[in-house]
Write a structure and sequence with these properties.
This protein is an alpha/beta fold. The chain contains 12 helices and 12 strands. The chain has helices spanning 2-34, 51-63, 80-93, 126-133, 156-165, 179-188, 196-205, 229-241, 258-270, 303-311, 334-341, 358-367; strands spanning 41-45, 66-69, 111-117, 140-146, 169-170, 174-175, 219-224, 244-248, 289-295, 318-324, 347-348, 352-354. The strands form 2 sheets. Strands 1, 2, 3, 4, 5 and 6 form a 6-stranded parallel β-sheet that branches. Helix 2 (51-63) crosses helix 6 and helix 8 packs across helix 12. It is elongated.
Length: 371
């Protein structure tokens, strides 16, 4: 009797095990199928605010590559100002912060994407630590960064130096601006193939953008933009609020290349130079609400925004600041905006950092009762 019961139990157990094994086989097969194109690619990234993480995840989705997030053994402070002080000290003293993450072997990977936020026109020092810990000899490295202020070109000299030391091949780098541009970049380096069907559909569904004519609106979007990111934000605010719009341009134009306008912008900041603005804003006195947009440069508004407040009377107006930066929060620029508005007794509302998310932008405007 006991033998029969045991036999029954054994047969049932083997049946369960067989089903479980079959499920495991199917699941493993699915994972292997999904990872076919990723078996030789790896994404390694460092992210402080979460922006670089989102880009890394997008690359993973596009390419199917494996992904690894590196974090420092001693975490950066949550406070922005404290983080900047620590990071600046690491750069000045050439400190390579220890990595907390357990690093696996990279022997099987041929193509490695390395992602980071740009800090002071270069990769954070933890990227140096990554090269200390790994030998990238024979690997193909593709750098990507998140920054609305600095182009990838500012980080490439450091990446070239690190790659050259390991005798690794370095592809062109990429600064994230949108998912569509990221897709195009991945195609350009041969990481993914062009989807012809998607391209045809895009052509069919794309409508030319239109800019509304000036209206009798009591609100104005005034902005300064070098890379085009702030312009995108300004145009979306204009569309949502039905405001008029005016782009600030320097009377003496900034150089078009990043290194050129970065040097000039830094010189203006250090020497408190307020560059002259080209043209004038028509019907200034009509506006009661003014949206002021700019890229964050060196944790503050560019000096041409100071010129705006020198040249125009903001008395009695409501000022709504917005900025574009992938690494610097809006809070860094708010003290400057309040200081500029103070002589006019103008009201400064909570500002917004635009990262390309139009839903978040709409929510911000709704929370301020502006739409």
């Amino acid at each position: 009797m006991k033998y029969k019961a045991f036999k029954k139990f054994l047969v049932a157990g083997l049946g369960v095990l067989a089903v479980a094994s079959l499920f495991s086989f199917i699941k493993t097969n699915q994972q292997v199928e999904a990872a076919k194109k990723s078996s030789s690619s790896l994404i390694i990234y460092f992210s402080k605010t979460g922006n670089t993480k989102r880009v890394a995840q997008r690359i993973q989705k596009e390419t199917g590559a494996k992904i690894l997030r590196i974090t420092p053994k001693k975490a950066y402070p949550n406070d922005y100002d404290a983080t900047t002080r620590v990071a600046q000290d690491q750069i000045r003293k050439n400190i390579h912060p220890a990595i907390k993450t357990k690093l696996p072997s990279i022997k099987k990977y041929k193509h490695i994407y390395i992602g980071f936020p740009t800090w002071w026109m270069q990769p954070p020092m933890i990227i140096h630590t990554l090269f200390d810990r790994y030998n990238f000899r024979g690997k193909t490295i593709t750098p990507f960064t998140t920054s609305a202020e600095s182009s990838i070109s500012s980080s490439m000299p450091v990446m070239r130096r690190l790659a050259k030391h390991d005798k690794a091949k370095l592809t062109k780098g990429y600064r994230y601006t949108s998912n569509s541009s990221l897709h195009g970049f991945l195609i350009s380096i041969g990481a993914i193939k062009r989807n012809r069907k998607a391209k045809i559909n895009k052509k069919k569904n794309t409508n030319p953008a239109t800019t509304p004519r000036p209206t009798n609106s009591k609100s104005l979007v005034v902005y300064f933009s070098m890379s085009g990111q702030t312009q995108k934000a300004a145009q979306e605010i204009q569309r949502l609020t039905n405001s008029n719009i005016f782009r600030i341009q320097a009377a003496n134009p900034y150089p078009s290349d990043y290194d050129g306008y970065a040097r000039r912008g830094d010189n203006e900041r250090r020497n408190n130079i307020h560059p002259a603005i080209q043209g004038t804003i028509p019907n200034w006195n009509r506006y009661s609400t003014v949206y002021v947009g700019f890229p964050t440069w060196w944790q503050q508004p560019p000096m041409i925004i100071h010129t705006l407040f020198d040249q125009y009377n903001f008395r009695g107006k409501i000022i709504v600041p917005f900025t574009t930066s992938m690494s610097t929060p809006m809070s860094a620029s708010m003290p400057y905006m309040r200081q500029l508005a103070q002589p006019y007794n103008a009201t400064v509302l909570n500002g917004f950092r635009y990262t390309g998310n139009n839903t978040a932008l709409r929510s911000w405007l709704q929370n301020l009762d502006l739409i």
